[in-house]
Amino acid sequence: MDADNGSRDPKIDDAPMQMDSGNSSAAQAKDDPQEELSQNMNKLHIEGSSSGNGSPSFRRKPVIIIVVGMAGSGKTTLMHRLVCHTHLNNIRGYVINLDPAVMTLPYGVNIDVRDTVKYKEVMKQFNLGPNGGILTSLNLFATRFDEVISVIERRADQLDYVLVDTPGQIEIFTWSASGAIITEAFASTFPTVVAYVVDTPRSADPSTFMSNMLYACSILYKTRLPLILTFNKVDVVAHQFALEWMEDFEAFQAAASSDHSYTSTLTQSLSLVLDEFYNNLKSVGVSAVSGVGMEAFFKAVEASADEYMETYKADLDKRREERQRLEEERRKENMDKLRKDMEKSGGETVVLSTGLKDKETGKSKNIMGEEDEDEEMDDADDDDLEIYTEEEDVIDEDEDEEVDRFGF
Ligand SMILES: Nc1nc2c(ncn2[C@@H]2O[C@H](COP(=O)(O)OP(=O)(O)OP(=O)(O)O)[C@@H](O)[C@H]2O)c(=O)[nH]1
Ligand SMILES: [Mg+2]
Known about the structure:
- By secondary structure, the chain is an alpha/beta fold.
- It folds into three domains: 1-18 and 37-55, no CATH class; 63-320, Rossmann fold; 359-406, no CATH class.
- The chain has 20 helices and seven strands.
- A seven-stranded parallel sheet has the order 3-2-4-1-5-6-7, sandwiched between helices.
- Helix 12 (240-247) crosses helix 13 (249-257) and helix 13 packs antiparallel against helix 14.
- The chain is globular and about 85 Å long.
- Magnesium ion binds at residues 75-76, 99, 102, 168.
- InterPro entries: Gpn, Gpn1/Npa3/XAB1, P-loop_NTPase.
- Its EC number is 3.6.5.-.
């Protein structure tokens, strides 16, 4: 926020100064076209730089928890459990549903994608299948996501957590443009963590466990957000085996070797690769049904939010600065080009390279004397000759004239 003020103040200070000097020398500028041109450029400079340079405000609270996971891993049931936990413990939560296709929700929501887009209507209207329908609904919703962020920002002081449920088809959220837009919108405004829900009983098989971990790994690297491996359904199977496999790859290899298929060899090799990935993760075991592990889950969320502030936020600031620098460079380049064009045309004529051959326009826009133009064009022609190839030499004379008229 300080950085925000720091970057904005100079522009506020600069503006009146530029305006004053412009007013006092207005008469002089009128007489001197170059002076007028220069003032116009400076005005443009102020307007150009006043937008896009301010970094959005950033708060420490609420923490956004995006719940993702394979279909049926228990995301919605876990959301329900988390909502109950927050109610019981006077934790101030806000609940968002991003699954357009869910029929009923066991918990009350504050913002529901289904209120904005009707998934079945989208399917009908765009002639889509179920997955296309969900994807398009989410895309449509993403176009309004700035409003969602504004709503949360307005309530930020009264909130501790924002819980976000996502569609069952995980790839729709994690690999779509809208998923990226939504995640980035959250992550650039609030501390954001991803809770990756794992169906623990199903992951007792080493191959399934490995594919689940690979997916989690890809999400971690794609979002660059802190990720909590949330082993759900521990009321059915305890997640101890998973922790063991993650800590000791030999234990995992021993389990995988009982399977003699080629996937087993691949799985064993991958376990070595994922060793580093496991070090960057927090793991908790929970049961959305019994409520076991909620304290541990929220502790992991808090630790991840701290991690976010230390690493992701710093990275985000760096990327934002870099983007601003590039934007500033590009803007300067454009302004230089514009300045040159305006100087060339005396500030009155703007020649657009439309690619259209319109002799009339060329003549009527000409504010230079015919002779001057011919001279200038001849010069340009001379310069250009150097880069013509033999093929271009065969352009007929008429065409040469046209090129001259529209050339810069
Ligand atoms: N035993 C047990 N069952 C669970 C638990 N969590 C979820 N389930 C069951 O798992 C099934 C799927 O749960 P959902 O919450 O719908 O899973 P989801 O990930 O939201 O599903 P989609 O949104 O369709 O991908 C349901 O039958 C739940 O009752 C749990 O902790 N323990
Ligand atoms: Mg669900």
